[in-house]
Automatic annotation (TrEMBL), chains A, B, C, D:
Gene3D superfamilies in the cross-refs: Homeodomain-like, Tetracycline Repressor, domain 2
HTH tetR-type domain span: 18-78
PROSITE patterns: HTH_TETR_2 (PS50977)
Top-level taxon of the source organism: Bacteria
Native source species: Kibdelosporangium banguiense
DNA-binding region: 41-60
Alphabetically ordered keywords of this record: DNA-binding
Protein name: AcrR family transcriptional regulator
Amino acid sequence: MQSKTRMIGRDGPSFIEVARRAQIVECAIETIASLGYAQASLNQIAERAGISKSVISYHFAGKDELIDQVLEDVSAAGAALMWPRVQAEETSAGMLRAYIQSHMDFMRTHPRHVAAVSEILLHNRTQFDDGQATPLEERLREGQRDGEFRAFSPRVMAWSIRAALDEVARRFVANPGLGLDDCARELTTLFDLATNRSAAAETQVAHDRSRDCP
Amino acid sequence: MQSKTRMIGRDGPSFIEVARRAQIVECAIETIASLGYAQASLNQIAERAGISKSVISYHFAGKDELIDQVLEDVSAAGAALMWPRVQAEETSAGMLRAYIQSHMDFMRTHPRHVAAVSEILLHNRTQFDDGQATPLEERLREGQRDGEFRAFSPRVMAWSIRAALDEVARRFVANPGLGLDDCARELTTLFDLATNRSAAAETQVAHDRSRDCP
Amino acid sequence: MQSKTRMIGRDGPSFIEVARRAQIVECAIETIASLGYAQASLNQIAERAGISKSVISYHFAGKDELIDQVLEDVSAAGAALMWPRVQAEETSAGMLRAYIQSHMDFMRTHPRHVAAVSEILLHNRTQFDDGQATPLEERLREGQRDGEFRAFSPRVMAWSIRAALDEVARRFVANPGLGLDDCARELTTLFDLATNRSAAAETQVAHDRSRDCP
Amino acid sequence: MQSKTRMIGRDGPSFIEVARRAQIVECAIETIASLGYAQASLNQIAERAGISKSVISYHFAGKDELIDQVLEDVSAAGAALMWPRVQAEETSAGMLRAYIQSHMDFMRTHPRHVAAVSEILLHNRTQFDDGQATPLEERLREGQRDGEFRAFSPRVMAWSIRAALDEVARRFVANPGLGLDDCARELTTLFDLATNRSAAAETQVAHDRSRDCP
DNA sequence: GATGAATGAGTCTTCATTCAT
DNA sequence: TATGAATGAAGACTCATTCAT
């Protein structure tokens, strides 16, 4: 709808309005995941939706609003799936595993959603707010305070985790035959080893030994 | 394209041809790193090079060939810096550390090159050759055969390593104040722990214990 | 168009029909005066009216009819205010003064109406009916026949008067602080001098003198 | 030319560049004068020029620059024609007559130019710099200081003069049969009478008389 | 009567590419 | 070799209009 005065009345957006927006958002996701962010023009999106290009302009103020809606919808859905499972864990290591595992599960059920968001975030790196910590980073930091995680930079670790997950997401979209279960197991183990205290200690010993007698 | 016609002459590309192509590639790198892939039009590149836009079309079959050349040149430069240092190591763990470390060193000395390639790969993720193993993956596999690395999927591990390195690269470009030394140390430790055999064993024990008495 | 169909009923347009049309016309005036003709889309007009855009299409055959109605309504209102005062004058000079003065008064009481019409005429200067004389022109001609006005082209004089009034209207809309009383006095004097017989004679003398001994 | 770096070297714009720009500016004038500002799209302009729409984008940074160029070119041409003739006059009244007369002469030789500028100025009334005095206003004020002109608001008078001239310009474009000589004579007389001191005095007398015995 | 929804034509702009010189 | 000039396709966006409900 073009007017921004969108009924201050009681009803809010109509059913069909909601449905259309959802459909367009879905098609945008589909398109971005398939063609990449750069190739995902309104034309392409409209074509996939089987609608005229201007229908998008009717339901969204502009491409930006559409993209924002994609981010919002997918993030909300992802968070709804993931955080309960993360919070249900008692240990920090468990939480990290749950984070990765649920991320992969979400990816399995919504592969193109994850890929699309990944594409969007990668291309809109304006808001690279290096200043602010992500929830994941916070959780890692907490795990360190608890003494469960070894000493590492939570920021770099969070970057690495997200980068690995996003990479898998894109690979999965390009190649749906990819075994997500295997990937999940690999990544949980990888970052388990990378974060837990005892492994670090042991490796430190190994390092020391290797330095002692080269 | 014209260059092919030129190639059939007896002496290959002339000196000036080579120089021009190199100059253009450099300017392309500069432009992409500065403005991002999307804003790096031939116009912008030509402007930075102080040449006419059509010079690019003259020396390259099209924008695609230019971009490919950028990838090729930077990859070659990177490989030339990195692989000697990697090969000089005797242990697989050392090689992995050298891989990460030299990658960061290359990033420090050629930040814009790395940024440009990163941008390009991000936008042209069409050709996801999942079939073929990268050199890094091969090295990881070798480390497993040697018994130095634990059992993991070399492919997923390679993906994770590259993803982490590229992420740091992008962060570094966006924020040159980023401490590359710290990142290098973080990542080498991270993937050291993630790959080495003893850490895995120890962690496995820890896991078992945690399963025994929850 | 639908309204024609409706008209063939026995009682003409219903009360609600008339009211709606009037409301829409008012909002159109408001919008055009505020945003300018170019920015006054049906969307904007409907928004200000608090109605749906298609209501306009329902009550008017198209934007053109709406615009025509605006012109008609404002002209009628203006004429209703002005002509009685003009006709009340006995001399032609008095009539001209009354014309200008009442025009400015109308401008003061209906600034946005005048501005809207001004905008519309500016953008739709297709139908320049140069053939037909305006009422103002007729009055000027009459003043000449009475011997009260000097000899001049009533057409060009009428153009000049209207142009000056419209110019002041636009200035007033752009800058409501403009002193309309001052403008009214200036313009009445200006065109008084420009039309009256005695001033012309005197000036003619001056001209002749200046030609005699340059 | 798209690049803004336009050769800092010695040559400046090439001959063909200058010619093309001039041609496009002429066609823009033609189009605006014929269709009105609102209908003068780049498409229309390009069509009249017999060139592709993007040629305009090549030679001008955007529509704005084209419009600005139109204003600049026409203003320069007009000023070059008018001001020498205006300055050549010794009396203020002579200058005003020369201003109007030369304006009409320019209109005769460049009718569409004048009409186009008039259209542009009317539509871009953003810069309605009511604060700043135009050269014409300054001249009028000077004439008052000299004691040659009666007391009037130079601003309102300048508005009226320009409005009348622009009105005639538009009428002339719409109807080329219009007798410009007659118009020129009419307007010079009109504003002569409206400004000169003696006419005002005489009229004042008439006014007084009419007030005495109405 | 009224309206949300949809649409196609049209706006300006950017860009890679081609061509004659 | 080099380049100024030109072009067509595609980009996002606006808008008056139409239609089913």
